[in-house]
C-alpha cells in the first residue's frame, strides 16, 4: 500500500536545497514514486505535480498527472529542460508547499524535457501549455526555487476561490486544478 507522506511547507530548509542526481532507478525509488502519486492525489488540496523535496527527499525526481485525456501520469528521474520557447505566458499558480496562496508566474509556453522514466529508460518529449508550466514548476523545486520567488501579485486564495477557479477551468474545457 502506498503511504501518505507529509508535504513540507515553505520555510522548511529542504525546499531550498539543490536536490541530488539519482544514479539508480530501483524498487525503492519506484516505491517512493508510488508514495508521491498517492500523496499528490490525497493531499488536502490535490495537486497535479509533486517534486521529491516536497516530501522531504532531496533527490531529482518529479511526478506529474495533468488528469486529462491527453496526458498519462508520469514520473521523471533527473529531468532537465533542454529546449524552451522564446514565447512566455503568464498564469496563476499555486503550490502544495505554499498552501492557500496564488501568484502569477511567467513561464515558457513550451519546453523540451529529457530524463528517465520509472524503469530507468531515457525519455525526451515536448510539452506545451499547462503541462509545460507544471514541468517548469516541478523542476524549479529540484533547484530549491519556489514559484513565489518568481511570481507577481502573490495573494491569499481561500478554498472557495480555488473551487471557483477550478470549476471555471472545467467549464472552459480546461480540466486542470491549479495547485502544482
Ligand atoms: Zn510546488
Unreliable sequence segments: none
Strand content: 25-35%
Strand order of the largest sheet: 1-2-3-6-7
Oligomer: single chain
CATH class: Alpha Beta
Q: Specify the helix fraction band.
A: 25-40%
Structural class label: alpha+beta
Number of continuous helical runs? 4
**CATH architecture level-2 label:** Alpha-Beta Complex
Q: How many beta strands in the DSSP annotation?
A: 8
| Cα Rg | 15 Å
Q: Kindly report the average pLDDT value.
A: 92
Silhouette: globular
Name the helix and strand elements from N-terminus to C-terminus, one letter apiece: HEEEEEEEHHEH
Largest sheet: 5 strands, antiparallel
CATH topology tier name: Peptide Deformylase
Task: Summarize the structure in words.
With 180 residues, this protein is an alpha+beta fold. It has one domain (13-171): Peptide deformylase (Peptide Deformylase). It is built from four helices and eight strands. The longest helix has 16 residues, at 27-42. The two termini are 24 Å apart. The protein binds zinc ion. Zinc ion binds at residues 95-97, 137, 141, 180.
Task: For this entry, give a set of tags.
8 strands; 26% helix; Peptide Deformylase; five-stranded antiparallel β-sheet; binds zinc ion; alpha+beta; single chain
List the topology elements.
Elements: H1 27-42, E1 49-51, E2 61-64, E3 74-84, E4 88-95, E5 98-108, E6 110-116, E7 122-128, H2 129-142, H3 147-150, E8 152-156, H4 159-171
Nutshell version of this structure?
The protein has 180 residues and is α+β, with helices and mostly antiparallel strands. Helices cover 26% and strands 31% of the residues.
Amino acid at each position: 500500500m502506498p503511504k501518505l507522506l507529509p508535504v513540507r511547507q515553505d520555510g522548511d530548509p529542504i525546499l531550498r536545497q539543490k536536490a541530488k542526481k539519482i544514479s539508480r532507478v530501483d524498487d525503492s525509488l519506484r516505491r517512493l514514486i508510488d508514495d508521491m502519486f498517492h500523496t499528490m492525489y490525497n493531499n488536502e488540496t490535490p495537486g497535479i505535480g509533486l517534486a521529491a523535496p516536497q516530501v522531504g527527499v532531496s533527490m531529482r525526481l518529479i511526478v506529474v498527472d495533468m488528469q486529462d485525456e491527453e496526458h498519462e501520469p508520469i514520473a521523471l528521474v533527473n529531468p532537465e529542460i533542454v529546449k524552451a520557447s522564446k514565447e512566455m505566458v503568464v498564469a496563476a499558480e499555486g503550490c502544495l508547499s505554499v498552501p492557500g496562496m496564488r501568484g502569477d508566474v511567467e513561464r515558457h509556453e513550451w519546453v523540451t524535457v529529457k530524463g528517465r522514466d520509472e524503469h530507468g529508460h531515457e525519455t525526451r518529449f515536448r510539452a506545451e501549455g499547462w503541462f509545460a508550466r507544471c514541468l517548469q514548476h516541478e523542476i524549479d523545486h529540484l533547484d530549491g526555487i519556489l514559484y513565489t520567488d518568481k511570481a507577481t501579485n502573490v495573494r491569499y486564495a481561500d478554498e472557495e476561490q480555488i473551487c471557483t477557479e477550478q470549476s471555471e477551468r472545467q467549464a472552459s474545457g480546461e480540466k486542470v486544478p491549479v495547485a502544482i
